[in-house]
Amino acid sequence: MSGAMVRISGLGINYGSFAAVRGLDLELGRGKILALLGPSGCGKTTTLRAIAGFEPPSEGEIEIDGEKVVGESVFVPPEKRRVGVVFQDYALFPHLTVERNIAFGLSGDKKGNRVSEIISLARLDGLGSRMPHELSGGQQQRVALARALAPEPSVILLDEPFSNLDAALRAEVRRDMKRILIDAGATSIFVTHDQDEALSLADEVAVMLDGRIVQSAPPEELYHSPATKEIASFVGDANFLSGVSENGSARCALGEIPVGTSPSGEVEVMVRPESLRLENDDHGEARILDREFYGHDQLVRLALDSKEEMIARLGSGHTFDAGDRVSVRITGEAVAFPIKTADSALE
Ligand SMILES: Nc1ncnc2c1ncn2[C@@H]1O[C@H](COP(=O)(O)OP(=O)(O)O)[C@@H](O)[C@H]1O
Ligand SMILES: [Mg+2]
Fold first, then answer.
1. In what order do the strands lie in the sheet containing 297-304?
2. Given the CA of residue 208, which atom of ligand 1 is nearest to it?
3. Which CATH class is domain 4-82+153-224?
4. pTM for the predicted model, two decimal places
């Protein structure tokens, strides 16, 4: 079957006079992973709760697998929505074994088969008779995921699935989770405030600010072509230079830079730190301020003669010292955002 697995239009959720979610539209294809990415308090959990059926919205429609679950005079209760939820704290039953946790939402005579199938899919072999407290954080997360996947829901919702894990574990658990979701053919929406998680895991990233989705795009597109300055800064590190744009290029402190399609006039030119190339040059246009060495790479802060500061992300092999003069080159295309004038801000 083709078509969207989840379709949301005009979703609004109010708490009293406060609009936590406003005019939210979203569409997610079958078997895809969507990240809802936004800062704390922007309405991510509220949105997930509305999809799951725990939060009756003030307005809008939600469709899951072609069936309207929220809309004019329709409200399908959570247990009838075929939605699996992985809560932020996993919410495993502490007094039940891994197997019985996973079997919880299953019924019928195929239960035993499904439990062993899902245990192997979630890479929990040999752990079926353990209690939750006898598992590592990563294993607990896989049990929560397995329990949500077991009844073969149409969509899996995960709220900040990595927030309870040590930084060292996260990357590994993230890879495991992605593999399990793909192997299960699951359609999933996960919520995160962490851009690395969103970019590395999702097929599509929806950026949410103040209760609205401000841009939804595949990770590469979102990173390289953010729609606004605000999104550019939220998704990754960004340098901004003031400039004037005309005919697809912008004049700024680093000379003439290609910026793709951009309206003419005053702009802010956004350059990602890894797009900068530095070279020792006594006549260069910048001076090194300081650097942070991380081993796999380093961040070098520099001041241009225009007084603008930039950050460059360089490989670990380069050596620059504070005070060095360098010339700065940009690889690839930059992005230009029109500067909002007092007039346009009122529109
Ligand atoms: N039950 C509630 N009553 C009143 N305000 C709420 C309630 N739940 C959430 N909020 C508010 O709605 C906003 C969005 O919350 P939430 O969806 O939990 O944000 P996020 O998950 O993005 O951090 C926040 O300002 C929060 O304080
Ligand atoms: Mg939340």
1. 276-280, 325-330, 286-293, 297-304, 309-315
2. 22
3. alpha beta
4. 0.90
